Amino acid sequence: MPMPFHTEPPYTHGQAARTAILLCNLGTPDAPTASALRRYLGQFLSDQRVVEIPKPLWWLILHGIILRTRPRKSAAKYASIWTPEGSPLAVWTAKQAALLHDALDDAGQQVLVRHAMRYGNPSIASQLDSLKAEGATRILILPLYPQYSGPTTASVLDAVYAWAARTRHIPELRFVNHYHDDAGYIDALATSLKAHWKHHGPPDKLVMSFHGVPERTLHLGDPYHCESHKTARLLAERMGLHPDDYQVTFQSRFGKAKWLQPYTEPTLVQLAQSGVGRVDVICPGFSSDCLETLEEINQEAREAFLHAGGKEFHYIACLNDSPSWIAALQHIAQQHLQGWPTQAPDRLAQASAKAHALAGGAPNGVCQAPD
Ligand SMILES: C=CC1=C(C)c2cc3[nH]c(cc4nc(cc5[nH]c(cc1n2)c(C)c5CCC(=O)O)C(CCC(=O)O)=C4C)c(C)c3C=C
Ligand SMILES: [Fe+2]
Ligand SMILES: [Fe+2]
C-alpha cells in the first residue's frame, strides 16, 4: 500500500509557486480587559529577548508580582485608546499590509502580503502556515521596526526560525534586518513634519522620542541606540534643523534598571521648566500609532509638559497609512524581493502545468516542485 508521506498540505499539481511578504509587528491584546492583558503580557514578558533576567528569578517576579497587578492598570490605558475596529496597532498593521499589497499590484507585482504579530494574534506561525497552504514558496519577512533591536527584530526572527524548525519543506526565506536610514523612510517622516509645520509653523523644540531598551543592551552590542540616533540625525538634516532645534529621547521605561537616556517625560518637564513654550513630539521608531504613542505620549507626556508650565504640546502622528510611508515600504520590499518571480500566478501556473505535462506528471497528482 502506498505510504501517505505528506505531513503537510502538499502543493497540488499545477498550483503556482507564490512569492509572499509577511509584515511583522509586536502585537497587542485582543481586548482592553485585564484577562486579555494577562495573556498578552504573559507571552510578551516571558520572551527572553525582551526581559534578559535569568529565568527562575524572572518567572517568580513575573508570575508573583507583575501579572497580578499590571494587567488591570494596562487594560485601563488600552481602554482609553481602543477604537471601534480594535486596538490601533492591529488596525494600522492590517491596513499597511493591504495597502502594500495594492501598491505592489499597481506596480505589476503579484505577491501575497499578510501581517503577523510576535505576541497575540494573528501569530507568525499561523500566518506562515497559511501562506504555505496558499502556495508561498518564497517569503520575505519584513519587521515593522525601522531600527534593529534584540527585543523586536531578533525576536521576530526567533519566531520564524521556531516555525521553520518544525516545518518539513521550508520556503525560501529572506529577512529585512533594519531600514533606519532608508531614504524613503526618512522622506516619509519629513513629509509628516512638513505637513504639520505648514499649518502650525515650527516648534521651539522638536522631541524625537524612541521606545527605550535597557542601557546594558547597548554595551552588549545591540545597535538600537545608534540606529535611533542615526534616524534622528538624517531626519534633522533632511529638515535643515540645527542640533539645538531637536532632542532625541527614549520612552516607555520598564522596571528599575537604567534604560537608554535621556528619558522622554522628564526631558519634556525640564524643557517646560526652562521656558520652552511649544514642543512637537514625533515617534519615528513606531511605524504605527499604539498604546506607547497615543496614551504615553499624547496623553501622559502632554499632561506632564503642560503641568510643568509648557504652553503648547503637539503630537505628530506615526506614519500609519500615509502614502509616502506605503511607498517607502514598497521600495524596501522591492529591494529585498530582487531575483524572486513576482508575476501573475496564473502565468506561473501555466508554466508549471506545462513542465509537468512534459515530465509525465507527478505520482498521485501531487507535486512538491511546482515551479
Ligand atoms: C519589558 C521590557 C520591554 C522592552 C525591552 C521593550 C522594547 C520595545 N518595545 C517596542 C515597541 C512597543 N512596545 C509596546 C508596549 C509594551 N512594551 C513593553 C515592554 C518592553 N518593550 C510592555 C510591557 C508593553 C505593553 C504595555 C504595557 O503594559 O505597558 C508597544 C505597544 C503595543 C500596543 O498594543 O499598542 C510597542 C509598539 C520597541 C520598538 C522596543 C524596542 C526597541
Ligand atoms: Fe515595548
Ligand atoms: Fe550609540
Features:
single chain, 371 residues, alpha/beta, Rossmann fold, four-stranded parallel sheet, 13 helices, globular, binds ligand L6N33NVT
- Mind telling me the CATH class of the largest domain? Alpha Beta
Structural class: alpha/beta
One letter per element, helices H and strands E, the order comes to EHHHEHEHEHEHHEHEHHEHH
Work out the helix count. Answer: 13
Estimate percent helicity. Answer: 40-55%
Assign the CATH architecture of the largest domain: 3-Layer(aba) Sandwich
Oligomer: single chain
- Main sheet characteristics: 4 strands, parallel
Instruction: State the strand order across the main sheet.
Output: 2-1-3-4
The kinds of small molecule bound in this structure are: the ligand C=CC1=C(C)c2cc3[nH]c(cc4nc(cc5[nH]c(cc1n2)c(C)c5CCC(=O)O)C(CCC(=O)O)=C4C)c(C)c3C=C, fe (ii) ion
How many distinct folded domains? 2
Q: Might you state the CATH topology name of the largest domain?
A: Rossmann fold
Mean pLDDT: 93
From the N-terminal CA to the C-terminal CA, the straight-line distance is 29 Å
Overall geometric form: globular
How many beta-strand runs? 8
Task: Show unreliable segments.
Answer: 3-14
Radius of gyration: 23 Å
